[in-house]
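ok so I'm stuck.
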Amino acid sequence: MCGRFSIITLDLEGRFDAKLYFEIQPRYNIAPSQDVPIILNEDTKHFTKARWGLVPHWAKDEKIGYKMINARAETLLERNTYKGPFKYHRCLIPADGFYEWKKVGSKKIPFRITMKDNGLFAFAGLYDTWKDMISFTIITTQPNSLLKPIHDRMPVILEKKDEKTWLEETDTDRLQKLLRPFSASDMRSVQISDMINSAKEDNPGVIKPAALLS
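replied:
not stuck anymore, here's the structure
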């Protein structure tokens, strides 16, 4: 799964060719239920503020979003919650890093995963509107060789050339083919401190390598 990510690099407009009309700050530890800028397939030229944790339009209570921070790529068309959004409500979620925990005995060791150049990338996501709130989920897939020793899932990171296709394509078979593990050769991981475990910690100390803390 993907339970935390970051947007530290703020040149979102330059990277995604979309306008940002609200203020953002560097985010080192984005957690579920928090608002972040995303790009909707129905408005590809502007960033939209959305909450992490998909709340379906038919939901009775927004708390359901806590259970829907991730959606498995393999079953999108099998689950009613995601079938409609997969066909009609897709989005890009910008990020420059995410976090996974490796289970070692009774402990969980946190790792930060980024591109080797520390650049921005986009998760493949789905969104829906509940009342006047837009919310989203991050799609996950099988792990690549970098992630496999750490976790049994990883978020779908789109190739830059496929981002436009993800937003504009209507054929679900073609869309499904985009939901594959990202190339491990372009990524790196580093063990970090347990500070990431607290959503209240949202500062540069979160991403400091554990080796530098000893």
